[in-house]
Amino acid sequence: MKNKHSHQDEPDMISIFIGTWNMGSVPPPKNITSWFTSKGLGKTLDEVTVAIPHDIYVFGTQENSLGDKEWVDFLRGVLKDFTEIEYRPVAMQSLWNIKVVVLVKPEHENRISHVSTSSVKTGIANTLGNKGAVGVSFMFNGTSFGFVNCHLTSGNEKTARRNQNYLDILRLLSLGDKQLSSFDISLRFTHLFWFGDLNYRLDMDIQEILNYISRKELEPLLKVDQLNLEKEKHKVFLRFGEEEITFPPTYRYERGSRDTYVWHKQKPTGVRTNVPSWCDRILWKSYPETHINCNAYGCTDDIVTSDHSPVFASFEVGVTSQFVSKKGLSKSSEQAYIEFESIEAIVKTSSRTKFFIEFYSTCLEEFKKSFENDTQSSDNINFLKVQWSSRQLPTLKPILSDIEYLQDQHLLLTVKSLDGYESYGECVIALKSMIGSTAQQFLTFLSHRGEETGNIRGSMRVRVPAERLGTRERLY
C-alpha cells in the first residue's frame, strides 16, 4: 500500500524480534547470535528466515551489569556483524539492572513517532529498584506499540506477590497517549508485548520435574506452571496470548553448561530451593481484528554465562499507514458517522448509581460522552445491568470518512459512575466489522485494573458515504 502523498511504499507488515534474558550479573559472551536469530530449542525459524533481518529488535534484560551505552553499543555491534545494517536506537530505558532497548532499521526511523519511556519499582515497599519494570511505546506509522520488560518477585511461594507486582506495573507504568489515562496499558496500544523474568515457578516436587524434563515430557509441567494457573483464574495477563511452550525450563542452570539444573541456592537467610521453571516469558495482547502471528518462541542452548537461558520470540505484525485522504477535508455531505442503536453493560458493583460511557479513538477529534443510562436492573446483588437507548448515545463523527482509514480504527469505551466518575470497566471495539448500511452487533468483556469486571454488548453501525468506499489490497 502506498502512502497517499509519498512515492515510497509503506509497509503493511513488519517483523519484530523480542528477547528476554536474565544475565545473572555477568557480562555476555562475545557471540549471542543464536539469541537474536531465534536458534536453539522450541519453535525456531528455518534457515531461510533466519537470514532475513527483522525490522525491529527489542531486547529486555534483567540483572544486566553493563552500562546503558555499553549495552546499546554491544547490541548494535552484534547486529551489524550479522546483518551489515546500522540499526538505529529508538529508545533505551533502565531501572537499576533491568533494561529495555529498541533498535530499528534505518529506513523505518522516520516512521516512528510519539516515543515514550517509563519505569515502575516493585521492590520492597515499591521503592527499591531491584524488582520492577521498564517500558517503551511508540507509533509505527498509524499503529501503536507498547513493550514492557519486567523482573518480578522471586520464590516458589510468592505467587500472590508476583500477581500484585503485575497489577502495580499495569496501573503505574506511564506509556502511550496521555489522553488514554482512563485505560490501563493493556488497552492503550494496538499491540502490547510483555516479557521478562516473571519468576513464576512449577508447583511440583523437584525429582518429578527432573524426571519429566529428562523424558522431554513438558505437558505435565505446563499444567502446574504458576503463570498458566494464575492466567486461567483470570488473576493476571487477562486475555494475553502466549505461543505454545515447546522448550525446557530456562532456569536454574549450572553456569557454564546447559546439562544440569541446580536447585539449591545459598541465601543470607538459608538455603532456598529453586525448582526448574519457565521464569522467562514473552506474552502479547493485540486489539481485535488486527494481524499478528508468532513464528518463533524458544530459548538458546549455547549461551551459558548465566543461570538463565535467553528466550526469544519473533512476530509478523500488520501495520497501517499514516492515512491522508484522497478527497481532502470532509464536506458535510461526505461525512461518515458512527451510530449506536443501543448498549447494555453488566458491571460488577453493588452500587445502584447511574452510569455514562466515554468514547475514545484516534479517529475522533476529542472524546465523547453519553448521557446517563435510562434503565437498569439487577438479578444479583454484586452485578448491575445498565442500558442506554439511541437517545442517550452520541453520534460520533470520525476526522476522516474514507473506508480504508475507518477499517483500521478502534473505539475505546469506559463505563463510569455518575456519583464518583470512577471507571467500572473498559473495552475496545474494532470498527472494521461495524461498517455497513445496517446495524451490527458487538459483544466483549469489560476489565478494570487487570480484573474482568463484566461485559458489554450493543448494536451500532459505521455509515460511510458512497464516494468514500474505495478499496485496496492488503497483505493480510
TrEMBL record:
GO terms for biological process: immune system process; negative regulation of insulin-like growth factor receptor signaling pathway; phosphatidylinositol dephosphorylation; regulation of immune response. It is an enzyme of class 3 (hydrolase). Residues 12-325 form the Inositol polyphosphate-related phosphatase domain. One of its GO terms (molecular function) is inositol-polyphosphate 5-phosphatase activity. The keyword Membrane applies. Its EC number is 3.1.3.86. Coiled coil: none annotated. It is found in: Cytoplasm, Cytoskeleton; Membrane; Nucleus. InterPro entries: C2_SHIP1-2_2nd, Endo/exonu/phosph_ase_sf, IPPc. GO terms for cellular component: cytoskeleton; cytosol; membrane; nucleus. The keyword Cytoplasm applies. Its main location: cytoplasm. It is a peripheral membrane protein. SMART domains: IPPc (SM00128). Keywords: Cytoplasm, Cytoskeleton, Hydrolase, Immunity, Membrane, Nucleus, Phosphoprotein, SH2 domain. Belongs to the inositol 1,4,5-trisphosphate 5-phosphatase family. This is phosphatidylinositol-3,4,5-trisphosphate 5-phosphatase. It comes from Upupa epops.
